[in-house]
C-alpha cells in the first residue's frame, strides 16, 4: 500500500505566483508490503491531450475507466528508508531477446513472434514495442506456462539470471498467476536500494515498486497507466502508446553535500527537490521561507522549528511532518535528528 504524507495541487512549474496558488509536488511515505503495479506516467503533452480528450468525452474524473485525471506529467523520486526493491527501465534488447528466446523454447510456448525475438537479439531497440505488445496481450494460460518455467532455479541458472530477478519471479508468479507483469524481471532492470539511496523515474519509463519502505516525491498528478500486477484498471493500449522504449540502465542516486548538515539529490525535475537535513545540538540549520513552500518530514530523532512568524515553536518527532509556507520568513531547524525536506527549485 502507498501512504500519502501530503498532497498538493495540480499545477506544474510556472511562475512564483502560480506556485503560490498550488503546490507543484506530492510528498508521500510509500510502503510496498507487496508488489505494486507495473506502470508508467505520461509526459506533459500526452497528459494534456489525454485529459482534454476524456473531458470532452464526459468521463467523470473519478470514474475507474478514466486514464487521465489531470493534464500534468509525473516524474518521481523514490528514496529508500529500508532495503527497497524496484524495477525500472528496459534491459538491453539483446538480453531481452536472449532470455525470451530461451524461455519460449523451454516452456514450449509462442509468447513472442520469432521475428521479434530475432530483431531483439540483434540489438534492435525498435523491437521492444512489438515485444511488449505480445507479452502483455498474451493469453493468461500461455503466460502461466512461461512463468512455471521461469520460476524454476534450474532455468534461472541456465540463462545466468541475476539473483535479484531470480528471487522476484517466483514471488510475482505466486501473487499474480497468469499475469504478464510477473515476467517483468526478464525485461526490466531489477534494482536493489539500500537506505539513503534513490531512483529518479522520468515520465514514460516503465517501472514497479516491489518491496520496501521509502519516501516518494513527485510532480502533482494522478495520471497512472498500468500494465499488470494489479486489480485496478489496466490500459495496455494507452501504456504501449506512451512508453519510452529505449534501453535505460537505472542510475542509483546518492545525495551530494549542499551545505553544513545538508545533502541534496540532483534530478532534472522542475517541480521538486529532496534535501536531507542532519541537525545536531548547537548546530542549527536555517531555511529561507521565501524559497518555499517546504514540507519537512522527520526521519530520525526529533526536530524543532522556530521563526518570528510562528506563534509557537514547532516540534516534529520521527514520522511527523511540518508544512512551511513561503511567508514564514527565516526558519531555524534545531534538535538532534534527520529530516527530509521537499521543496520546489527557485
Query: Which value, in Å, is the CA radius of gyration?
Result: 22 Å
Total helix count?
9
What is the percentage of strand-forming residues?
A: 25-35%
Number of beta strands: 18
Biggest β-sheet strands, sense, barrel: 8 strands, antiparallel
Helix/strand/pairing class, anyone? alpha+beta
Order of helices and strands: EHEEHEEHHHHHHEEEEHEEEEEEEEE
Termini gap: 32 Å
Low-pLDDT runs of 5+ residues are 1-20
Key features of this structure:
elongated; 9 helices; 25% helix; Jelly Rolls; 3 domains; alpha+beta; eight-stranded antiparallel beta sheet; 346 residues
Describe this structure as you would to a colleague.
- The structure is a single chain.
- With 346 residues, the protein is an alpha+beta fold.
- It folds into 3 domains: 2-88 and 191-253, Sandwich (Jelly Rolls); 92-186, no CATH class; 256-343, Sandwich (Jelly Rolls), CATH 2.60.120.10.
- The chain is 25% helix and 32% strand.
- Strand 12 (262-264) and strand 13 form a beta hairpin.
- Helix 3 packs across helix 6 (140-150) and helix 6 crosses helix 8 (163-175).
- The longest helix is centred in the first third of the chain and has 15 residues, at 93-107.
- The radius of gyration is 22 Å and the shape is elongated.
- The two termini are 32 Å apart.
Briefly characterize the structure.
The protein is an alpha+beta fold and 346 residues long.
